[in-house]
Amino acid sequence: MTFRSKAFEIAQGRVAPSLTPPAEKITDLYGSNTFSDDVMKTLLSAEAYTKISNAIRSGSTIDREVADEVSAAMKSWAVSKGATHYTHWFQPLTGTTAEKHDSFFDLTMDGKAVEKFKGSALVQQEPDASSFPSGGLRATFEARGYTGWDPSSPAFLMDNGAGGKTLCIPSVFISYTGEALDYKAPLLKSLVMLDKAATSVCQFFNRDVDKVTPTLGIEQEYFLVDKALYYARPDLLMAGRTVFGHSPARGQQLDDHYFGSISPRVNAFMVDFEFEALKLGIPVRTRHNEVAPGQFECAPTFEEVNLAIDHNALLMDLMQKVGDKHNFQVLFHEKPFAGINGSGKHNNWSLSTDTGINLLAPTSKPKENLRFLTFLMNVVKAVHDHADLLRASISSAGNEHRLGANEAPPSIVSVFLGNELTNMLEELVNKGEITLEKGENFYYKLGITRIPNLQRDNTDRNRTSPFCFTGNKFEYRAVGSSQNSASPMIVLNTIVANQLLEFKREMDERLAAGEEKKVATVEILKRYFTESKNILFEGNGYSEEWLEEAKRRGLSNIRETYDALHAYITEPTITVFERMGVLTSRELHARYEIELENYVKKLQIESRVIGDLALNHIVSTVVKYQFKLAQTARSLTDLEMLEEAAPIKEIIKDISTHIVIIKKLVHEMTEQRKTANNIEDLFERAKMYGSEVKGFFEEIRYHVDKLELLIDDEDWPLAKYREMLFLE
């Protein structure tokens, strides 16, 4: 029995583990492992609680005395729940999370053991900054960096799995010289600027608004593969995706997996990680089968953007840990399997005021609709003016496989508003009037009396649009499933804040000149619509016709990651980010370099995996099988059974042809990789990897996948798609 056969046998023998639901209601379970507002209110003095609340709400500074009281309360709470260590939990530019655990254990001067956690340890830790990506901001010998407590994101307890828990403190990560080395620091800055800009624009319509909070709901797609089969695929283990694998006879063509019945084993995994997520304050609500076999999705309730991104990063880590208990490997790669849908991370973004208003929700009141249109058009204008930057924010080696592949939004950034909103804006430009009123709800008349009336939304949904309006929010669908959502949200928050401040400047000038407020607002919005309408598209973003239409409109179609990333270091980008105080020119150049380096390393790894698998797994196995065929053909020939031997000889020839081509292509790919590695200019190196080295991947795959069809099933060394995707 081959290793693959044994792995498949183990996988098929798995059964859904029995789960004991928690005794509490899930609402009681929610946040039980977080240092929540209720916990703080119970454990802190009234003065300290007020200061912490003000810091979270308005960003005021927390003094060390208050930090000492919070740290004491936090330690007491954590230890009472079984914690032995604490860590600053942060999000470096690796795309994953990071943590360094320190024990509460300490010794006094007379040698007695005590549990200690000072305010200084809560506020700041010192990880090695030179060991994380810095894009040149830190040299190898410049090791010092700092993590700093973010009080706006609750501390939480993470089960270590082998006994004991760790108190995790969400934190920013900066260099010794103060530059941001993570996603959270610039995200927090962008949120502050968006709050200020949006609040200032709200003042034109409602002076009661003192704060605007961007909200986010992140839909997370993923694949599940049995752990045994995962380890039988070195490419999945090393590169996160299958570099070889012939499509099974049945894939997703029957559309029977989407929203289908969830298998007991998968459901047990989902229930388990949802319970654990709820304990950590992650408000998961939705679970379902996705389009591709073996693919699933979960989604939370909307939260403040910073918290939503922390929770998504934590959820991905949690899913891997819980998956391990269920003998599953969770795959977050954007395209782990060829020929079927890849995975995204749909970011549903909106703006809410402290008075309870969603600024992106239309109403039936003309004044409120003018406010809605103002924020809607400012978002559209920001996306239009910085489309290439928004495209750069979701660029990666993994997402490159997915974007535009008739399953995901194309690499052309367009905005979908829906016919009704688009027509309304046309009316605004042509007549200077807003004709849309929400009015009475529209219901479908089904003609089936037992079915309640179904209400129709004011806009359709367009799954082919990368940036679409869905009734009261914008959905950025192009984000990759493995990506930290902070990257696109930093960009979106910053460009919208910049645009809203520009709108305010224009309004102030017009009002100072004596223009009436409504007239001034409408005139500015009319111009914005005229300047931005070429980015609006209502049709099929997957179609060839759209590619031609977008080209006529002058919209960018940046297919390659190495080209897309350049938008980070253009003059307009640097100007906006520095004006908003979110990222400096130096920090932007550093991130550009980090992303290019990451792109090169991912393709380098994939190239090496392809070469190793092709020569040391596939070809070596195929040669042994070919030898068995040759012996059979020789025996038949010796028996003068020439007609029976002929097809076997043809198979031997076909195998030989594929082997020769594979060896030739692997050699040429390796030589191109060596050439690319010697290129000093990072962009040129990335370009050669993306255009030359990567160009061999599909060619080699074609011939390997052909061999999969020729080799006896028992002899094939790699777990096959039908085994991995249709596992119950």
From TrEMBL:
Residues 183-618 form the GS catalytic domain. It comes from Dyadobacter fanqingshengii. InterPro entries: Gln-synt_C, Gln_synt_N, Gln_synth/guanido_kin_cat_dom, Gln_synth_cat_dom, Gln_synth_gly_rich_site, GS_Type-3, GSIII_N. It holds the Pfam family Gln-synt_C-ter. Signal peptide: none annotated. One of its GO terms (biological process) is glutamine biosynthetic process. GO terms for molecular function: glutamine synthetase activity. This is Glutamine synthetase III. Belongs to the glutamine synthetase family.
